[in-house]
Design a protein that fits this description.
35% helix; eight-stranded parallel β-barrel; 3 domains; TIM Barrel; 21 helices; 2,3-Dihydroxybiphenyl 1,2-Dioxygenase, domain 1; nine-stranded mixed sheet; alpha/beta
Length: 631
């Protein structure tokens, strides 16, 4: 099975697009006519550029408004086709994609369309070319793949076949069973695109909001299963119209595209929908199941180390262990381990030089660390080999958000003994009788808005997590798009916040941080009031929430003044839905905009979205040290 992507899916000029496509490891490329027309090189030059990069051209497209035209428009359409055949011959591609007519001059009737496509097929065959016919979801008369197939069937020409595009099929909610009846030799190309569920007209939805398989809500797996049932073994190609992608990094979007296809093929392998050869290529280890977040590592220097340790003490953490050979200390409470890395010769130090005080790594305890690494590698994640001294553990790792690291450990071999092999507890603090904080509830990462879909695909393809519906959170300086990936057990929850404005808190964090990264960590407690009292006793002040917020709580939830007074006294925020109750306390922000959160869940599955605008307004007011980018 060959993988292809359309040039229209990426930003840049044609050379930049081809470079990105080749770098991502695609086999082929669809040359979109507009990209070719805007490029100041001959068709022969373009063909050579494609071949020099180890690619082939899967199709030249689109050829619009062809079938069903009255004279003299019909004659002119054939003249246009002949000129496109000339271009194709020089490009070195044999297939032209013809999409169904949307012209107001088009006339209906399958017989008329059959006659036109048969003649076009004859003309193409004389040149050694062939025609792929596609039903656009908004085609004037032909907008259903079943009608397009009926036309191709009646044409009955070896040079005329069907192009199936998942968006045009799934956006209209068409049944898929009929696909299995199409002979595999008559399927000339299969194009794939996902999309979020939106209440838009089909054309607008298609032209602006398509995305990679796995990034949207369309049922791509049943579609590709139906295609595979025909025995199709041709090209799978991505045709993605998306405003974000055409404004973002061509290289990253291309990598996302190939990752999405590998992930989809891996899902197909899981349901026995691949040939024996493709099965060997695309079978992946199972998605990594996170048992818990083993540790979070901060890159610090001596100055930020003292400031962070003071906050950790205020939160009730104790020094648990120190590294045997490095300037690394672990603070712990409950099932939470915070690693503070001040080692000058380390990845953390290089991360600190770039970003300052920051979360530089997250370690996940999974069922099988090496299988998780292998799955991530096959899905184009970047492995991170690390130098270790003899007798210490090399932990499997990949690059994550903002070039941070994601480590994998499991309960096998030396990895299960990390804290005793690499660390020692001698001289550390005594553990308290009872820990108030019990585990890491969730991690919140802020990214450029254009990166959100990339990281959603990264997490959902590698880890056993599902994404929630996205939300727009109101910041005083604009909207922040927020979406969560989480597993069923609640042991891994990552909120991804895309900053649409650099003046928002998330945007200002990105500005201070010099890129995407972890902006806040939420610790879970079983007793929010005990946690609040511990923080106050330890001299740690919390984010002050306005009295107006608590007055509104009484009105919204019919609380008495005593209970609301307890919440207000500790700066505790509250939410409730049909599943349960949620309590939140926030620390003050650090100089770069990072902060901690304490939460108590009482059968509540959300993240307190109703409280976010209030919290953001307070943080914005109290964090004038965060630079506001000027444009």
């Amino acid at each position: 099975m060959k993988m292809s992507i359309a040039t229209v899916s990426l930003s840049g000029d044609l050379i930049e697009k081809l470079d990105a496509i080749a770098h991502a490891g695609f086999d082929a490329v669809e040359i979109f006519e507009a990209d070719f027309l805007a490029f100041n090189h001959t068709p022969a030059d373009v063909g050579k550029m494609v071949r020099d990069r180890g690619l082939t051209i899967s199709v030249f497209q689109p050829f619009r408004d062809f079938e069903g035209l009255p004279e003299p428009l019909r004659t002119k359409a054939f003249e246009r086709a002949e000129r496109k055949f000339d271009v194709m011959a020089e490009l070195g591609t044999e297939q032209l994609l013809v999409c169904s007519n949307v012209s107001p001059y088009a006339q209906g009737g399958i017989d008329r369309a059959v006659e036109d496509l048969r003649e076009l097929g004859e003309r193409a065959a004389k040149r050694g070319l062939r025609i792929g016919f596609e039903a656009l979801a908004w085609g004037r008369f032909i907008n259903d793949y079943r009608d397009a197939w009926e036309i191709v069937r009646r044409v009955d020409h070896p040079g005329v076949g069907l192009v199936l595009d998942s968006f045009h099929v799934l956006s209209r909610g068409l049944e898929l069973d009929s696909i299995s009846a199409i002979p595999k030799e008559k399927l000339f190309l299969v194009q794939l695109a996902d999309a979020p569920r939106l209440n838009l007209d089909l054309l607008s939805w298609s032209r602006h909001f398509r995305n990679m398989p796995g990034q949207g809500d369309l049922p791509l797996l049943p579609f590709i299963q139906a295609v595979q049932s025909t025995g199709y073994a041709g090209v799978l190609s991505l045709e993605i119209f998306n405003d974000q992608f055409r404004a973002g990094s061509a290289r990253q979007v291309a990598i996302d595209g190939r990752r999405s296809l590998i992930y989809l093929m891996g899902q197909l392998a899981d349901v026995d929908g691949l040939s024996a050869i493709d099965e060997q290529v695309y079978r992946l280890p199972e998605r990594a199941r996170c048992k818990n977040i083993e540790f979070i590592e901060f890159a610090v220097d001596e100055n930020s180390l003292g400031r962070l340790e003071k906050v950790l003490k205020g939160l009730g953490f104790r020094k648990f262990a120190h590294h045997r050979t490095k300037n690394v200390v672990v603070w712990s409470q409950g099932g939470i381990n915070i690693v503070l890395n001040c080692e000058p010769e380390s990845f953390a130090h290089s991360f600190y030089i770039t970003h300052g005080f920051a979360v530089c790594a997250i370690c996940l305890s999974v069922d099988d660390a090496h299988a998780a690494l292998e799955r991530a590698r096959k899905l184009l994640a970047v492995p991170f080999p690390q130098a270790v001294v003899p007798g210490q553990i090399e932990i499997p790792a990949i690059r994550g958000v903002g070039n941070s690291l994601i480590y994998f450990i499991d309960q096998k071999g030396d990895l299960q003994n990390l804290w005793s092999i690499d660390f020692e507890q001698e001289g550390m603090d005594t553990a308290p009788e009872e820990d108030v904080l019990v585990n890491i509830d969730h991690i919140s990462q802020s990214t450029e808005y254009d990166e959100m879909l990339s990281w959603l695909l990264f997490y959902t393809s590698i880890f056993d997590v599902e994404k929630t519906s996205g939300l727009d959170i109101a910041d005083p300086a604009g909207l922040v798009r927020s979406q969560v990936v989480q597993n069923e057990e609640g042991t891994l929850r990552i909120a991804i916040n895309g900053a649409q404005s650099l003046r928002t808190m998330a945007g200002r964090f990105l500005n201070e941080f010099f890129g995407s990264g972890t902006q806040h960590i939420a610790f879970a407690t079983n007793d929010i009031f005990a946690a609040a009292k511990q923080m106050k006793a330890n001299g740690l002040t919390t984010l002050p929430i306005p009295d107006n917020y608590y007055d509104d709580l009484m009105a919204r939830f019919d609380f008495d003044e005593v209970f609301v007074g307890q919440l207000a006294n500790h700066g505790i925020m509250y939410d409730r839905d049909e599943t349960g109750e949620y309590f939140q306390i926030y620390s003050h922000t650090f100089p770069d905009g990072f902060f901690f959160e304490i939460v108590e869940r009482r059968h509540y599955t959300g993240f307190g979205a109703a409280n976010a605008p209030i919290r953001l307004a307070v943080q914005t007011r109290l964090a004038p040290h965060l630079a506001v980018p000027k444009h």
